[in-house]
């Protein structure tokens, strides 16, 4: 049955759109060059080198490759040439055999060696071939010894070398699939193909410079290196390299040999003997003696896909067999790992991938102690504190723990003095068991090495353990986990009432709570946030109003309940405005301004005083519920009196002279000014 025409056209359109990454980049270069005429491609050239690249959109705007500046030039796109007197490159290259085409596309040296090695008759004659032809510069870059060994024995070595660059069928870039292998015309030995998302295509890690040059008997691709046969697996590379002796021992101990001998396409970032020697002996012995840590270490050096150096023209995030990621990049001619130029020897090809030698050991978090994790992060000052307190043994051994480590900024004024109280406090920063923050839940109880119980609070914008909120992603080590927190933890020491009674600043408040009959409420288990007026706050009240308040238990209880919310809100949960319902019924507005917590726009004197049943904020003012605020009090003169003052100025003057009415008049005048903007 015939397919409907619209569906057929759609299928054809999708097929046409599914271009290979190389063709997409070539198309972009063609678009950037079209103002210079037909079939002109924009090319980026690294300043100070002969390296050229067709440009993708990102490179075009950044004007950089491997962090180095480029200049834009305009050249004929592959397969076209200039015509004198005409704009651009309007003419297709003459279609000739492969031998003739080599001379036209910039591979005259390959053409010369084809002649010398008696390959010429084959590539001039009938057939269908693909040749990956080294550029003239590629041949010139060979060492004199290598080149002499090839050229001096042209009928054998040179011919074999050239035939290894050939495939006995026509293969275009769209056919060069990532991870594929092609059987060469030299003993059917495989050629490895990698076609990367950035448009780079490599053949045994040599980059295609000019691709898809058609010939009558095949196709020519110009590459930037002379490629050599490879028969060794990655494991065999390790076994034959003297500089990888320590790695060889480690691989054998971890039972990874079978993986590195198996089929696949891996990248091994192979630490040299020098890399292992840079690691402190104690650390190295610990990892080598721990099979799980050793396996994680080695898997952290193995990428899940083959990554040739020529394919890296900007930063990439690559996944390792350990499940972690590494930032692979470049800086000029150098490859970098996590921003550091530590690759000593690159693109050692194996049958199952590629090996880059690295001169620094990449130790993953999963092979580190908690102490090592902390030393290398933004909590390094905390490690000094725990070491001074004699607690290092909990952070360097095989004890399962989680460390709550304050970030360095907490100690900007210096480290606290270590005494027994501080040591006990630090013990309460070490949790029993190795935890992960993604499994913590609101209300969870955690046990510390100091035998304290800490609570977990989950907020919309933060995850906190007591008053300390997690400031960075977890770092999970071999036996312990590191939580970076934004402040020193203060474990609760008693109920809200216990804490208030123990602090002389709140003696008036304690008396008020007792007078209002609220003591039992604040002693019972719960989740309270208390905005506690200090003695200073009560002293700031007019004496008469204070006496009246203290003498009215019902009104006092109402005011005090307005200072209490029935949920715990620590300061780390406040980044804008948070509204809490007070136990009195009205809303409390908690906000952050200039790094200071405000309650109903009043600044808080001290935050996060932790209690077993809540959290306390010290405030230097007594908060007034909406109905109790002076501007809304119901004890003002009735409306008729207000009308009198609005309508009779003469009576107003009399009222001002009357000692009994003068205070009332002043209050009404103030209200009228607020409501009407003044008389």
From TrEMBL:
Assembly behavior: Binds to type I, II, and IV collagens.
Subcellular location per the Swiss-Prot or TrEMBL entry: Secreted, Extracellular space, Extracellular matrix
UniProt keyword Disulfide bond, yes or no: yes
One GO-annotated biological process of the protein: cell adhesion
Residues covered by the EMI domain: 37-91
Pfam annotation, one family: Fasciclin
Protein name: Transforming growth factor-beta-induced protein ig-h3
Domain of life: Eukaryota
One GO MF term: cell adhesion molecule binding
GO cellular component: extracellular matrix; extracellular space
Gene that this polypeptide is encoded by: Tgfbi
Task of the protein: Plays a role in cell adhesion. May play a role in cell-collagen interactions.
Range of residues in the leader sequence: 1-17
Span of domain FAS1: 95-227, 231-362, 366-489, 493-623
Keywords: Cell adhesion, Disulfide bond, Extracellular matrix, Gamma-carboxyglutamic acid, Phosphoprotein, Repeat, Secreted, Signal
Gene3D superfamilies per record: FAS1 domain
InterPro entries to which the protein is assigned, alphabetical: Adhesion/Biosynth-related (IPR050904), EMI_domain (IPR011489), FAS1_dom_sf (IPR036378), FAS1_domain (IPR000782), TGFBI/POSTN (IPR016666)
């Amino acid at each position: 049955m015939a397919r409907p025409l619209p569906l057929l056209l759609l299928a054809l359109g999708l097929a046409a759109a599914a271009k290979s990454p190389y063709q997409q980049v070539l198309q972009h270069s063609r678009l950037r060059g079209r103002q210079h005429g037909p079939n002109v491609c924009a090319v980026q050239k690294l300043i100070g080198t002969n390296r050229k690249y067709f440009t993708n959109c990102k490179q075009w705007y950044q004007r950089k490759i491997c962090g180095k500046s480029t200049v834009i030039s305009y050249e004929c796109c592959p397969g076209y040439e200039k015509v004198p007197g005409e704009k651009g490159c309007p003419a297709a290259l003459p279609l000739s055999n492969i031998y003739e085409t080599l001379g036209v596309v910039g591979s005259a040296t390959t053409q010369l060696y084809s002649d010398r090695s008696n390959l010429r008759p084959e590539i001039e004659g009938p057939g269908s071939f693909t040749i990956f032809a080294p550029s003239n510069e590629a041949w010139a870059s060979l060492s004199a010894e290598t080149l002499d060994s090839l050229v001096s024995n042209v009928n054998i070595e040179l011919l074999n070398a050239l035939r290894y660059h050939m495939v006995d069928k026509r293969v275009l870039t769209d056919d060069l699939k990532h991870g594929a292998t092609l059987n060469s015309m030299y003993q059917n030995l495989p050629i490895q193909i990698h076609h990367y998302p950035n448009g780079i295509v490599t053949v045994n890690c040599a980059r295609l410079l000019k691709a898809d040059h058609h010939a009558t008997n095949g196709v020519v691709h110009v590459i930037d290196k002379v490629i050599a046969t490879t028969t060794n697996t990655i494991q065999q590379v390790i076994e034959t390299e003297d500089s990888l002796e320590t790695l060889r021992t480690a691989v054998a101990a971890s039972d990874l040999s079978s993986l590195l001998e198996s089929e696949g396409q891996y990248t091994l970032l192979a630490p040299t003997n020098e890399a292992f020697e840079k690691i402190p002996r104690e650390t190295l012995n610990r990892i080598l003696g721990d099979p799980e840590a050793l396996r994680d270490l080695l898997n952290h050096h193995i990428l899940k896909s083959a990554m040739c150096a020529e394919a890296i023209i900007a930063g990439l995030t690559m996944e390792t067999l350990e499940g972690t990621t590494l930032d692979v990049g470049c800086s000029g001619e150098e490859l970098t790992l996590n921003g550091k130029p530590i690759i000593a020897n690159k693109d050692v090809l194996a049958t199952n991938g590629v090996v880059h030698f690295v001169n620094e050991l990449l130790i993953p978090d999963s092979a580190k102690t908690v102490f090592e994790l902390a030393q290398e992060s933004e909590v390094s000052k905390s490690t000094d504190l725990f070491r001074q307190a004699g607690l290092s043994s909990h952070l360097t051994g095989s004890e399962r723990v989680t460390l709550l480590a304050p970030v360095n900024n907490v100690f900007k004024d210096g480290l606290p003095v270590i005494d027994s109280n501080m040591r006990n406090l630090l013990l309460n920063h070490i949790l029993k068991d190795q935890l992960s923050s993604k499994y913590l839940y609101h209300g969870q109880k955690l046990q510390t090495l100091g035998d304290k119980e800490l609570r977990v609070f989950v907020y919309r914008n933060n995850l906190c353990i007591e008053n300390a909120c997690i400031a960075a992603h977890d770092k999970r080590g071999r036996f312990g986990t590191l939580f970076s927190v934004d402040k020193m933890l203060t474990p609760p020491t008693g109920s809200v009432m216990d804490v208030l009674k123990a602090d002389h600043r709140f003696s008036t408040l304690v008396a008020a709570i007792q007078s209002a009959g609220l003591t039992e409420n604040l002693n019972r288990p719960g989740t309270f946030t208390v905005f506690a007026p200090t003695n200073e706050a009560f002293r700031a009240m007019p004496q008469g109003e204070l006496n009246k308040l203290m003498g009215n238990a019902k009104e006092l209880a109402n005011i005090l309940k307005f200072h209490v919310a029935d949920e715990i809100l620590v300061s780390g949960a406040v980044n804008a405005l948070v509204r809490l319902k007070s136990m009195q019924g009205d809303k409390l507005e908690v906000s952050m301004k200039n790094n200071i917590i405000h309650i109903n726009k009043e600044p808080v004197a001290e935050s996060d005083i932790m209690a077993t049943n809540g959290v306390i904020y010290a405030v230097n003012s007594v908060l007034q519920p909406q109905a109790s605020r002076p501007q809304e009090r119901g004890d003002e003169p009735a409306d008729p009196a207000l009308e009198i003052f609005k309508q009779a100025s003469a009576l107003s003057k009399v009222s001002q002279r009357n000692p009994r009415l003068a205070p009332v008049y002043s209050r009404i005048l103030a209200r009228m000014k607020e409501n009407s903007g003044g008389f």
